[in-house]
Specification:
With about 400 residues, the chain is an alpha/beta fold. It is built from 13 helices and 21 strands. It folds into two domains: about 170 residues, Rossmann fold; about 200 residues, Rossmann fold, CATH 3.40.50. Bound molecules: ligand PMT.
């Protein structure tokens, strides 16, 4: 798979360094020439001998190695590389790279590299969320680095939270996408909606839902990586705005509808991953509602929101329309009903009663129902992998139309 690919794998000094061995083994088995560069701290977590045996190439820790064939280590190692990936990347190494510091073989090699750059940060939650680390990661993104964010889970420090290196299989899939990019959506204009809508009650309160936007953002990024032009219409989320994607933030269902209608004619594919509020408050208060002593109740009158997907279904000309369904029960029955009622071409059903799928988690498992009667079930996987599964179904459907 990776014959003729040279990959420089940088490893910095975190507990997740041991997982690099599996990645080196997988890349090597698939034909890549893997050259490992360890920071001195990484060599405390995993021995160069292990990586050398797996990669069958000398491993660099010390900048000042001498031996037959060695020139200037940090230049020679990266000069004809197809990819430089740092897995795991500690807060310290990320900070040095962001600042352009070159105080060891790996950070020096980064400055000399002209190939695509990939980084998978892994660290304690507070270190990851620290504004300094976040700013440094954003700096790398702005410079075009591919950043694979950490996931939530049990960390080596005993805490549970964000900062864990993603599963090796997910990292391998991300590396494969970078090394063998699919461009099968080039020339297509995508509209993707993501996140929740918010419907105001008064100036300080609103009705919303648990959507984090992760699924929709993963779809937007996957479509972009496969060559599509993407407009992402997003409700409020805490996610960074994806690079290389046109981005339109909205708040209410009415604003999302207006944005979708405006873009619709120029779109080839629309994917409605957003969780749109079905109802809004009929008369939002202009001023903050006050608690009163005379009653224990408050009654809000709700009115139906426009159904954006159904409206797009009604106006469909050439567009391929993909809806979602978030269900807690009778998933298949309700999904099939929505597919037909909203004139979608594909309907992606999420069983949101599961802890590992649907709202605000990093993984998903979906079943896609097609207007042609097919049913495709994805494996439980990262939302990025699920996004590619959905896009494969979109591509197959487009191929059938041609
Ligand atoms: O954002 P995450 O935390 O990653 O979670 C992902 C997700 C669970 C939000 C997402 O994968 C998902 O299932 N999105 C659809 C949620 C939803 O609103 O489902 P629904 O069954 O209520 O709506 C069906 C479809 O109609 C959806 O495509 C929805 O965007 C659309 N809709 C619904 C109501 C409305 N007024 N207008 C719409 O367009």
């Amino acid at each position: 798979m990776f014959a003729n690919k040279k990959i420089v794998l940088g490893i910095s000094g975190g507990i997740a360094a041991y997982k690099a061995a599996d990645i080196v083994s997988w890349l090597t088995k698939n034909g890549a020439a893997v050259h490992c560069m360890l920071t001195p701290n990484a060599a405390e977590f995993i021995t160069p001998q292990v990586l050398q045996a797996l990669s069958q190439h000398p491993v660099v820790v010390d900048e000042f190695v001498n031996g037959p064939g060695w020139g200037i280590v940090h230049i020679d190692t990266v000069q004809d590389a197809d990819l430089l990936a740092i897995i795991p990347a500690t807060a310290n190494t990320i900070a040095k790279i962001a600042a352009g510091i070159a105080d060891n073989a790996l950070t020096s090699a980064v400055l000399a590299a002209t190939c695509p750059l990939f980084i998978a940060p892994a660290m304690n939650t507070h270190m990851y969320q620290n504004p300094a680390t976040q700013r440094n990661i954003q700096t790398l993104k702005d410079r075009g680095w591919h950043v694979m964010p950490p996931v939530s889970g049990h960390l080596a420090c005993g805490a549970v939270g964000e900062g864990k290196l993603p599963d090796v299989a997910d990292i391998e899939a991300a590396l494969q996408r970078l090394l063998l990019p699919k461009r099968d959506l080039a020339g297509l204009q995508f509209l993707v909606t993501a996140g929740p809508t918010i419907e105001p009650i008064d100036p300080v309160r609103y009705i919303s839902n648990k959507s984090s936007g992760k699924m929709g953002y993963a779809i937007a990024e996957a479509a972009r990586d496969r060559g599509a032009q993407v407009l992402l219409v997003s409700g409020h989320t805490n996610l960074p705005r994806p690079a290389g994607v046109e981005y339109l933030p909205v708040d209410s269902a009415a604003a999302m509808l207006a944005a979708c209608l405006e873009a619709y004619d120029g779109c080839d594919v629309v994917i409605k991953a957003a969780a749109v509020a079905d109802y809004r408050v009929a008369e939002p208060a202009a001023q903050k509602l006050k608690k009163t002593d005379d009653t224990d109740e408050m009654v809000l009158r709700l009115v139906k929101n426009p159904d954006i997907l159904a409206e797009l279904g009604r106006r469909k000309t050439h567009q391929l329309l993909v809806g979602f369904a978030a269900e807690t029960n009778n998933v298949e029955e309700y999904a099939r009903q929505k597919l037909a009622k909203k004139h979608a071409d594909l309907l992606v059903a999420n069983d949101v009663s599961r802890a590992d799928a649907g709202f605000d988690v990093d993984t998903n498992q979906v079943t896609i129902f097609t207007a042609a009667g097919d049913k495709l079930t994805s494996p439980l996987a990262s939302k990025r992998q699920t996004a590619d599964f959905i896009l494969d179904a979109v591509r197959a459907r487009l191929d059938k139309q041609q």
